[in-house]
């Protein structure tokens, strides 16, 4: 289980490094994108979860966390600390590392597939270009994702 720490804006990477230095098990998923300035284009890494980092329960003492510059508070849900499960972190990590696509040549309309990021079974209802729409089993919801 993981707790969610709220950080000051744009302090996620510094907070992550500082927490690692004091021995806290921390996870801050980063995505890469290109930024355009008037004179150049640059590839940057930015946090997927703005103003948030995940810390594994039991790997820290509250006093140590709040001694780090940039840490604001724990995120809460219904008055208790917000909790993220290991499975949710695994799905998030798969998403960040691009493990959420299917090979276009191996699926067709009507096939049953596992929706990569959601880890849920569904039926392919539409394929258009590099996009695929899947109706999720037992939910009636439709998810879309990219194909290789």
How would you explain this protein's 3D organization?
With 148 residues, the protein is α+β, with helices and mostly antiparallel strands. It folds into two domains: 2-96, NusG, N-terminal domain (Alpha-Beta Plaits, 2-Layer Sandwich); 104-146. The protein has three helices and 13 strands; from the N terminus they run E-H-E-E-E-E-H-E-E-E-E-H-E-E-E-E. The two termini are 33 Å apart.
How do the strands and helices of this protein lay out in sequence?
Elements: E1 2-7, H1 12-21, E2 26-27, E3 30-36, E4 41-47, E5 52-56, H2 62-65, E6 71-74, E7 76-77, E8 80-81, E9 83-84, H3 86-96, E10 112-115, E11 120-128, E12 131-136, E13 142-146
The 3D shape can be described as: globular
Number of DSSP-assigned strands: 13
Q: Could you say which structural class the secondary elements and strand pairing correspond to?
A: alpha+beta
Proportion of residues in extended strands: 35-45%
CATH class of the largest domain: Alpha Beta
| CATH architecture tag of the largest domain | 2-Layer Sandwich
Name the helix and strand elements from N-terminus to C-terminus, one letter apiece.
EHEEEEHEEEEHEEEE
* CATH superfamily annotation of the largest domain: NusG, N-terminal domain
Span of the ends, CA to CA: 33 Å
Domain tally = 2
Q: What is the percent of helical residues?
A: 10-25%
Low-confidence stretches: none
Mean pLDDT: 83
Number of helices: 3
In short:
The chain has 148 residues and is α+β, with helices and mostly antiparallel strands. Helix content is 17%, strand content 41%.
